[in-house]
Amino acid sequence: MRATSRKPGKVKIQPPMTPMIDVIFQLLIFFMLMPTQTSEGYLTTNLPRNEGPNPKPQIIDRDRIKIELVEEGAENQSVTIVLNDTLVLGSSFDGLEAALKGYRAQGLPPDYPVLIAPGMAVRHKWVVRAFDAAVLSRFTNIQFAVPG
Could you count the other beta carbons within 10 Å of the beta carbon of residue 129? Predict the structure, then answer.
């Protein structure tokens, strides 16, 4: 800002006018061009008619190794291990690890999915032991099912 003096003792302050004029011209151009913009419209699309806005997720039935942990005994002090819905290992996590290493020896890749499905009352330590067995067998894609 520049200060000018007309009378002795009084100072008149004048703001710079050039930036204000630039802003006014920018606003003028903006509001002149704004009505020429197209208003909101609809896009033509070809969407399937049998699905709504929130379709149910599709479950891909992919082969995987499934480890089920079933609680048993008083106060769930032990667990039964079921591998792929058929092989019952009892409560031997060493047997689980050996079975998983057998799958790896058959040529399953490390990223082959392993699903650990505990029962509702299975203690956390059994789930961790099943996870440890899968990790020690060099599997990297380990998933957990919701207890139920």
Answer: 19
For residue 3, give the amino acid letter: A
Strands laid side by side in the 114-118 sheet: 87-90, 78-83, 65-72, 114-118, 142-144
pTM for the predicted model, two decimal places:
0.55
Tokens of 46: 């070809």
pLDDT of residue 60: 43
Give residue 61's pLDDT: 45
Beta-strand ranges (E) seen in 2-90 are: 2-4, 12-14, 65-72, 78-83, 87-90
Q: All domains of the chain, ordered by start, with CATH?
A: 65-144 (3.30.420.270)
Q: Which residues pair with 69 in a beta bridge?
A: 81, 118
Q: What does the DSSP 8-state code read for residue 54?
A: S
Q: 90 and 80 in contact (C-beta within 8 Å)?
A: yes
Judge whether 117 and 68 are in contact, CB under 8 Å. yes
Question: d(Cα 143, Cα 132) in Å, to the nearest integer?
Answer: 13
**Residue tagged 């379709």 (tokens):** 55
